[in-house]
Design brief:
This protein has 181 residues and is of the alpha/beta class. The protein has 4 helices and 10 strands, in the order ββαβαββαβαββββ.
């Protein structure tokens, strides 16, 4: 099986110390505008098409069961051990690696774009992969108690633009796009 040439993008939120999680959950309060951005970005596709979101098993397990799979998108769950994930609902499939996930997306003619949505190990693989074009980073201007961290973006990626700025729950944050250099 050869590697897929399909490009993909990453979507992630991180605090001021690049923290992205704590105990397999987000360490900050729910940021409504950030979640809206994630939904809009990953659902927006041409008519008759849809996007795919690729996530690791732990990220999948952190999604509330009533939200599984994330609606309007093909959900691809990465796991080295297929038995780690119980029977997946319709709209979700298993893949054994990032390449396997991209090949599965290639095999589905309805898939337009592919987005990596976590977690840390998957981001590490994605950032090192030349097929990763853009990283949509919600940069939270506060520090939280985290046990999981985002790998560095620089020097592989360069800041491209700030897409939006918000404040919720007394937390300032900006949604940025970083582009592979």
């Amino acid at each position: 099986m050869s590697a897929s040439p399909r490009p993909f993008d990453c979507v992630v939120a991180a605090d001021a110390a690049s923290g992205i999680g704590r105990d397999n959950d987000l360490p900050w309060p729910r940021l409504r505008e950030d979640l809206r951005f994630l939904k809009r970005l990953t659902q927006q596709a041409p008519e008759g098409r849809r996007n795919a979101v690729v996530m690791g098993r732990k990220t999948w397990e952190s999604v509330p069961s009533k939200m599984q799979p994330l609606p309007g998108r093909l959900n691809v769950v990465l796991s080295r051990h297929p038995l780690d994930v119980d029977t997946l609902p319709d709209g979700a499939i298993m893949a054994s690696s990032l390449d396997d996930a991209l090949i599965r997306c290639d095999d589905d003619p309805s898939i337009d774009r592919v987005f990596i949505i976590g977690g840390a190990e998957i981001y590490r693989l994605a950032f090192a992969d030349p097929r990763c074009r853009d990283v949509y980073l919600t940069r939270i201007a506060a520090r939280f108690d985290c046990d999981t961290f985002l790998p560095p973006l620089e020097p592989t990626f360069a800041f491209a633009e700030t897409l939006a700025r918000h404040q919720e729950h007394g937390i300032d944050y900006a949604i940025e796009r970083w582009r592979r250099v």
